[in-house]
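It would be a great kindness if you could assist me with a short task in structural biology. The matter concerns a single protein, recorded as an amino acid sequence and a row of backbone structure tokens. The record follows directly beneath this note:
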Amino acid sequence: MPIKGVPIGTCATAYDHPDLQETIILCFTQSLYFGNQMEHSLINPNQLRDFGIRVDSTPKQYDPNSNHVILITEEDVTIPLQLHGCISYFPTRLPTPQELQDCRYVELTSEKEWSPYSDRFTEQERPFANRVIAVTSTTERRHEIDAPALAQRLSISHHVAKYTLSSTSQLAIRHLNAPLRARVRTRQSSLRYHRLNTLLYSDTLFSNTKSTKGNTCAQLFVTDTQYVDIKGMKTKGEAGDKLNEFITTTGIPEGGLVTDGAKEELYGRW
């Protein structure tokens, strides 16, 4: 017998995340509140999707590319789905008053009025109805990928994918014909050293007094982030060696190298 007069409200349920070891309060606005009339909570996958939540509800046995998760990218939370028979679900429970006060809240639906039979869904779907998917190829060696695509391919959150891209450089490419079975060392020696996201200034300093190590001058290295390194030299001809030492021990300045154009900073080993 159908249930009538079901109120619409904001409902909360507690989810004990198995990986984060954290209890999260999941908030559903514009949802049907059945109270104690139902043992389980019901969610509309498209209502979550309309709020920007990724719901991958297809079990992996039917789609190997499926992650079978609910992905909340803004909160960096992934909820793995399980199966009860053929029904996808995740376990939740009634939150305690203390949990409602202390735990993190994560919203899964919008506060805007939810109208599941609105014509806007049909209008928004229409441009995709006759879409043709084709195979394409490129001869460019450098590959561009954005955070959403990386998140989908690696089954990670949008936040982690964005951070990964910001921390990853593609300074050179090496192609292999055989299957990759072991770690491959780069052939470009410059890629073995740290990269410094800064501008480097260098100049040669001279002294009238010889040091206890026999140094009469030094090569000064300064970055625009206030990092200073001074390397002693017996002659100014060692400037190139000190630059190489700086690069191998500290890193390569990606912002460039600025000198006053002295001979020791233009020729020789420099």
